[in-house]
């Protein structure tokens, strides 16, 4: 358990490191995407501001002289020192465009008496953004040199969180007034532009987490198999130790010849040797049979099997060897079942054996049979034993489950190594049926075999009679 905890902690730390790396990567990508969006929106807002000037000029022309031309004086009001400085900085074209824009703004405002139309600017800016695949909600405003809003096309606060603001575009040579565009939903835009990246990241995370979980499960399964092997070995040795000891002891006594003059006692010793040998052979055959069941190599020979004689034979056998008071009750509505007699008998024998093992000094076992509405024949074995905890009912049919609880055997629990109920499960499955359990701890347990009727099985080929493990 200590190693497993260590492995789990390493896996958790590894997952956290991967999540952290993915977070850093996505954060940096988000910032780069945001910067790219801001650069594009800055350039487009400058174009939109210039187009808005031309739009005002066109409106003035339509209102005054639609069929005639008009002229304006454009004055680049800038000193030569600034020009030289800008030229030396290799930004002459930027200076020229900026000053032309300011000159146009000044001329339209002073000569045509038309101020900036913010709704038109919004419309032009949104259209330019849409032309490059950026569908955004925008508004524009006039701000002063301190960034305070002088006029806005919207009542929204440009300083609110979650808004992407363009760089101010000057509209006066004295630097007291600027135009500024605002995108109100930049987060959604950025996420949309990162959609494929987010999907790829999610897939990578799912793949990595799935691989780590799968590896942990494999390690857990391997550890469980190792524990089962150890517990199974102990349980099998524990279960075989008594008959082997009895055989060895009986053989030694018979070899001495001391019982030659006591034929009855000698016969009893031979009977003990035979019974213990049969017990060992039964254990070996059970392991081999389960192996064949799981490897699709065991075939059933099915026929109409009378239930009452089979159950009476088992009841008589266990009543003689129980060593405790046993009462058998009969509620058989179905007298026959379509099954392999030997395998069915061994499966029911396991259920009766468990009922005797896990019960008190007085045992009451009830046999029931009948046909359900869906045509399945059921055979139930009910006892008044210790019952099975609800949490264990889902795993009692697992192979070596009894061995995995070998601590109970070591502390004086019932003998065995977890093959009985798994054998019952495999036999039911081989017949095309199933086994069910109903139990209340401290009160009773009911195991029910459900087997298909003969007419259903006759439709199958002989190949289908091969056990599906």
What does this 3D model show about the protein?
This protein is α+β, with helices and mostly antiparallel strands and 469 residues long. It contains 13 helices and 12 strands. Strands 1, 2, 3, 4 and 5 form a 5-stranded antiparallel sheet that branches. α1 (2-64) packs across α3 (92-111), α7 packs across α12 (420-430) and α9 runs antiparallel to α12 (420-430). The two termini are 31 Å apart. Residues 80-90, 403-417 and 460-469 have low confidence and may be disordered.
List the helices and strands and how they pair.
Layout lengths: L1 H63 L15 H9 L3 H20 L6 H14 L6 E6 L5 E4 L11 E2 L3 E2 L7 E6 L2 H8 L1 H62 L6 H32 L8 E4 H15 L3 E8 L3 E4 L1 H17 L4 E10 L5 E7 L17 H4 L1 H5 L9 H11 L3 E7 L3 E8 L2 H5 L11
Parallel strand pairs: 7-9
Antiparallel strand pairs: 1-2, 1-5, 3-5, 4-5, 6-8, 9-10, 10-12, 11-12
Helix pairs in contact: 1-3, 1-4, 1-5, 1-6, 6-7, 7-12, 8-9, 9-12
